[in-house]
Amino acid sequence: MIKLSENIPYAHTSICLNDKFEVFYSFGRKSKYNFLKCGFVIENVTERYLKWYPNSRIRILEIPVTTKQYQTIEQKIQYFVEHIETFRYNLRGILLIKTSKRKTNPYHLFCSQFVNYILKESGIHLIETAPEYTTPKMFYQLDYPIIYEGNVQKFSSAIKQVKRVNFCYE
What we know:
This protein is of the alpha/beta class and 170 residues long.
């Protein structure tokens, strides 16, 4: 639904905190076949997307952050991990994203809302739009170095060839 309405090849947004690209954090489905069973998810590309959506395309951007920003991102995500059952998917927000009808609930988020929220709370303002109005397309349009772009099936072997990724700068 998001992919079609946004007219982009990517309909999901998540955050990864290391250069091994093993664990990503986001909001999404907890079950492949039940789109209503959603919430905060800890994702693994090879376990989740390769099995669930083997023909998916992914794009990974390198976003420079300071050490302090990185630590804040870690702390914010750790809160979500520790309270994983508290959070729900913001299905209403997704359905109303193109309208001005918005009711925010800090415990209900969708993927791009979550990523923009985490970044803004960490002092990183890549997208000026409020988190509850953030779409995956907004991240797709960012002009940052692309670490990987392509089919999820080729991700594991291709990412091993990445020599260095700078996550922090001072």
